Amino acid sequence: MQKIEIQAEQFFELLRLKDTSMWAIFSQMMDGNEKEIIFLDNDHKILFNYILPSTPEKLEEDRIEFSKQFSEKLAHFN
Questions:
Q1: To the nearest 10°, the Cα dihedral for 49, 53, 56, 61?
Q2: What is the pLDDT of residues 54-77, one digit of tens each?
Q3: Cα 45 versus chain centre, distance
Q4: How many domains does the chain have?
Q5: Which range marks the domain in which residue 22 is found?
Q6: pTM of the model
Q7: Please, which of 2, 8, 49, 53 could form a disulfide with 58 given CB 3.0 to 4.6 Å?
Q8: How far apart are CA 44 and CA 39, in angstroms?
Q9: What's the Cα-to-Cα distance from 24 to each of 18, 21, 42, 45, rounded to whole Å?
Q10: Residue-level pLDDT at 16
């Protein structure tokens, strides 16, 4: 499995500047093979990782699940 390291702060700033979602970027990275995307902090320590699936259908399932979990976590702050 290919491993891709991404500087999280720069990645999310780029998404903000380009006004795009990480899911749109992930879909462009798909080539039929799973990839491990490793998000690093500024000290090159692992913050989290994500296994990019090999199919658009699985990516959509992941997006829906992420959105659900994110919404639930935000609800706890309100």
A1: -60
A2: 999 999 999 999 888 878 777 777
A3: 17
A4: 1
A5: 2-77
A6: 0.79
A7: 53
A8: 9
A9: 11, 5, 24, 25
A10: 94
